[in-house]
């Protein structure tokens, strides 16, 4: 399908749950929308998704296919498989500047798209602890979320990884193991501390285990502090070998958190402080709209404000919220679409009023 206008109203960069939901919401207003899908998804390694009503336990690719089919019903939506490689502002400034915005983007085939608004539904890429073999298990046997994958681990053995490099995250990992995961009644529970020795005071504090040693012992947790040399998948689960002479360990699943996340490399070149009017947050997400920004034309009815410090640039899903799963990203995509539609309508109204006033 082809959008008839030379300038599309909204360019949505990203064809995952957030981008598809944003595009569908805007499609309902009959605004022209162009969506670019790079085919790279944060949850690509996961074979199934959960907490999505009607799609629980199914492959996320099936949901994306159904959502694309929904978009195909709207003549005002143009969908491309490819990447946006450059993005520049032609008009407009910060979120406090009411000047109508305009942008120019170029895709990986050299096509130029001009638009009034940009939605960053670009997702994130996760960086796992640097342990050979671990990244290949991400979303399979190396998991992070009880709601997404945890139920399938119930009643079996379970590992929880904390590392020296994750000092800021370790208390959350330990707290989650003690508050969220116990309902799954694991037959064996092991903390792998990857070199952090709980008998050394400094290591104990870094590990996040210090406040909970008594309850960990009471609940039967094991603590293995030997550094991990490699993780390999076998039929019976993950095989852990160590840099010491400790015997290899076999666990069906391992709970692990990314050490950090960052935007996909394909969009990093234009997610700059000068374009966004602020640097990316430390977690790699798009900066939020400032607290003192003027209110949106159509404020969010629920969820986070999808605006950024740059007027006309919005975010949806993981681009601005690292913790958002598929269903959360779908919901936020709708919030984003509503706020974008409100800003477009507000600018149209202001332009019409100015024209009438000059007559």
TrEMBL record:
Reply yes or no: does the keyword Oxidoreductase apply: yes
Identify the stretch(es) annotated as Disordered: 283-308
* Keyword tags: Flavoprotein, Oxidoreductase
Example GO biological process term? cellular response to toxic substance
UniProt superkingdom: Eukaryota
Amino acid composition bias (Pro residues), ranges on this chain: 285-298
Q: Which InterPro entries match?
A: FAD/NAD-bd_sf, FAD/NAD-binding_dom, Ferredoxin-NADP_redctase_2
Gene3D superfamilies recorded for this chain?
A: FAD/NAD(P)-binding domain
Q: Name one Pfam family in it.
A: Pyr_redox_2
Name the SUPFAM superfamilies on file. Answer: FAD/NAD(P)-binding domain
Q: Which residues form the FAD/NAD(P)-binding domain?
A: 9-145
Q: Which family does this protein fall into?
A: Belongs to the class-II pyridine nucleotide-disulfide oxidoreductase family.
Return the protein name: FAD/NAD(P)-binding domain-containing protein
